[in-house]
Amino acid sequence: MYARRLLTVGLTVASAVALALPAVSASAGIARGSFRETDLVSNIPGRAQHLDPNLVNPWGISASGASPMWVSDNNAGVSTLYDGAGNAFPPPASGGPLVVTIPKPDGSDGGTPTGTVFNAIGGEFNGDRFLFATEDGTIAGWNPAVNFTRARIEVNRSTVGLGAVYKGLAIGNNGVADHIYASNFRFGTIEVFDTSYTMVALSGSFTDPGIPVGFAPFNIQNLGGVLYVTYAMQKPDKHDDQSGPGFGFVDAYDLNGQLLRRVASGGALNSPWGLAIAPATFGNFHGNLLVGNFGDGRINAFAADGSFRGQLKSETNAPIQIDGLWGLRFGNGALGASTNTLYFAAGINDEQDGLFGSIVNVDN
After folding, report:
1. In a 3-state reduction of DSSP, which class is residue 98?
2. Which has fewest Cβ within 10 Å: 144, 239, 305, 359?
3. Domain 29-361: top CATH class
4. CA-to-CA distance for 103 and 22, rounded, in angstroms?
C-alpha cells in the first residue's frame, strides 16, 4: 500500500530561476544574516536527533514533489528515506522504513551511490522512478514494480578503460527529449544517456577550455533549466579528489552541453560538490547559488551577477562548517520538508560515518 503512496508524486522538481552568472573569482565577501544547523540523523548514537545505521557517507539527495527525501548512502550501498524532521520513511506503523539496496556491477550488495535524481515520467528510463550514479561506474534505477527494495543496474561502464567513476547525476529535457547527465570524474567527462539508457552525443560537449588539466567534473545538477557542473582536482588514480583552498571551478551549461559561462573560479572553492539555489525566504542569500565545499565543509553563496556574497554563518558569526559535506537540497514542501529549509548530507569522520541535517535562516 505504501508503495502506491510513495509513487503518488508531483511531476515537478523545485523550479528555480535560471541564473546567468558571469565568470568571477570566488574572492572574499561579507556574509550577513545568521543560520542555524540542526543535525537530524546519524549512524553514530547520540550524534543527531535520530539514529540510522545505514546512513554512512551520504551523498546526493533527491525527491519528487510529494515524496520523502531519498539519500544516497555511499558506504552502506543503500538509499534511505527521510521526512523533513529526519524520521525514517515510511514509519514502522506503515511497514517502514524503506531501505533500497544499490548493487555492485556484478549485482551483489554493496554499491557506491553518489548523485541521485527523480524521474517524473513513468514510461521513461525503464519505469525507474529514482536513479543513482555510483563510483563503481554504474547507473542504477529503482522501479517498485520490479523490486521494491532493490535497484537494478541500467548502465554499466565499470570495465570501460580503467572504469568509469560517476560522482554526480542530473536529469533534464533539452527541448527534444529527456536525458540523464552523469559526471564521470575518472574520464573527465559528462556522459549523456537517453530514456533507454543509451549513451548519446548532444550538440555540445560540456567542455570549458579554461579548466586546467587535472580538474574533472565532480558534480552536475539541473537547477532551473541550467546544468551546473562543479570541478575538483583529481588525485593520480583519478578516483578521488584532491582538496585544497582554491581547488575548484563551477560552470553553467545549457541542456545540450554548450558552455554558457564560468560561474566561479578558485578563491573560496575547495572541492565543490553540493549545489542549490536559495528561495526568496533564505535571508540575505535569497536567490543566490549555493555551492558546498567537500574540502572544508563551507557553503558559498553567489549572487545573480556572479559576485561572491560570502559563506553561510552561524549565530556566532562563524562560518558553518560541516565535515565531509556532500549534498545540498531545499525541501519540497512535503512531509514537513519546508521549502525554506536547506537539507544537507555529509560523510563525517573521513567518510566513515554519516550526517543528515538541516539549515534554516534564523531571521526568517
Report:
1. coil
2. 305
3. mainly beta
4. 40
Place of cell 560538490: 273
10 Å CB burial of residue 82 (0-12, 13-18, 19+) is: buried
Q: How many residues are present in the chain?
A: 364
Beta bridge partners of 73: 58, 78
Q: Locate cell 562543479: which residue?
A: 230
pLDDT in tens, 92-144: 999 999 999 999 999 999 999 999 999 999 999 999 999 999 999 999 999 99
Contacts for 142 with CB less than 8 Å, ≥ 6 apart? 79, 100, 128, 129, 130, 131, 132, 150, 151, 152
Say whether 101 sits in a helix, a strand or coil: strand
3-state secondary structure of 16: coil
Q: Is the pLDDT of residue 363 over 50?
A: yes
- CB under 8 Å, gap of 24 or more: what pairs does 265-268 form? 265/23, 265/24, 265/25, 265/26, 266/25, 266/26, 267/25, 267/26, 267/27, 267/28, 267/308, 268/26, 268/27, 268/28, 268/29, 268/293, 268/298, 268/300, 268/308, 268/311
Q: Where along the chain do its domains lie?
A: 29-361
The pairing of strands 78-82 and 215-223 is: unpaired
